[in-house]
Design goal:
There is one protein chain. This protein has eight helices and ten strands. By secondary structure, the chain is an alpha/beta fold. It has two domains: 179 residues, Rossmann fold (3-Layer(aba) Sandwich), CATH 3.40.50; 65 residues, no CATH class. The strands form two sheets. It has a six-stranded mixed sheet with strand order 6-7-8-3-9-10, sandwiched between helices. The protein starts with a helix and ends in a 6-residue tail after the last helix. The structure holds adenosine-5'-triphosphate. Adenosine-5'-triphosphate binds next to strand 2 and helix 2.
Length: 288
């Protein structure tokens, strides 16, 4: 079975056909004429369409720098990033154009508190003006229903639980039909019980939408639970130190956490993560 078929099997059937990201020999040096901070060091990584790719690495290693390069928020110094074979940034074009095909999901606090959940979800497409208002609201209601948000359409974000708010934030991003969702440690401050609710919500929404997910985390358990693949980065400057296929089939639920394979994968990876964290600590990187 090839990798795509395997991924298709693992993700529960229908495979995504768009949103393949290739990071090819990317280097990023901040302030090259001054302090010259090298954040990314000849990093190469292929992410398949519809893959949940978890990026794990110590504080300050350069994970967000990579995410920002994909999103088009920052330039790269050399190398190339492509999406579905098209150059996002590379030689002669150091910075990608930000676009609705790659959306950073800002979790917690990014909703307009004075708009209802439905109005928040419909906001982006309404502003873009590419679809009719009726069509947008129909789509918004349908996507909210798919994400378990029926009945909350007319509530304001402050009136629903934080779990439901975060679902609204993801649905708002998905309204733009992105190929890739980018998450930068969305659940870092949450206790493990709340996190587990968030993880299940994210997977539930993912199984219906199958976009590519680039997800940064410090939390190894979270990474193995959610990801098709785990990319463990070196301490700064970052590049993949170990890439691991998480061979636990999707759909997953919380029973996975106590399975022998999950524990094996934790054991296989925790020493590497710990080693890089120690290097990063010794180099004086601070908790971001
Ligand atoms: N605009 C900038 N100018 C100079 N240095 C920067 C800039 N942005 C980030 N850096 C440095 O680049 C390195 C990588 O930063 P980045 O935010 O990508 O790391 P990270 O792995 O996402 O960290 P964390 O997990 O703590 O969020 C850090 O040493 C950081 O201080």
């Amino acid at each position: 079975m090839n990798t795509t078929q395997e991924r298709q099997r693992q993700s529960g059937g229908r495979a995504a056909t768009q949103g393949a990201i290739r990071i090819d020999d990317v280097v990023k040096v901040y302030d090259p004429d001054g302090a010259a901070v090298m954040a990314v060091d000849h990093c190469t990584l292929d992410i398949a369409a519809g893959e949940i790719c978890m990026i794990v690495g110590p504080s300050g290693c350069g994970k967000t720098t990579l995410l920002n390069a994909i999103a088009g928020f920052h330039s790269i110094s050399s190398g190339t990033i492509t999406m579905d074979g098209e150059v996002l940034c590379g030689p002669g074009k150091p910075k990608a154009e930000p676009g609705s095909d790659r959306i950073v999901v800002f979790q917690n606090g990014a909703l307009f508190p004075w708009k209802t959940n439905l109005e928040n979800v419909a906001f982006g497409p309404l502003m873009q003006g590419k679809m009719g208002k009726k069509e947008i609201y129909e789509k918004a209601r349908r996507m909210m229903a798919d994400a378990g948000l029926s009945g909350t359409e007319n509530n304001y974000p402050g009136e629903v639980s934080s779990g439901l708010r975060r679902r609204v934030e993801i649905v708002r991003a998905l309204m733009n039909d992105p190929k890739v969702l980018l998450f930068d440690e969305p659940y870092r401050a949450l206790d493990s019980l709340t996190k587990s609710v968030m993880h299940e919500a994210l997977l539930e929404i993912y199984y219906k939408n199958k976009v590519t997910i680039f997800f940064i985390t410090h939390d190894l358990e979270e990474a193995i639970f959610l990801g098709h693949r785990l990319v463990i980065m070196t301490s700064r400057p970052c590049r993949p130190k170990k890439i691991l296929d998480v061979d636990i089939p999707h759909p997953r639920d919380y029973s996975v956490l106590t399975s022998p394979r999950f524990r094996e994968l934790m054991e296989e990876t925790s020493a590497i993560v710990h080693e890089e964290a120690k290097k990063s600590f010794a180099a004086g990187e601070k908790e971001g």
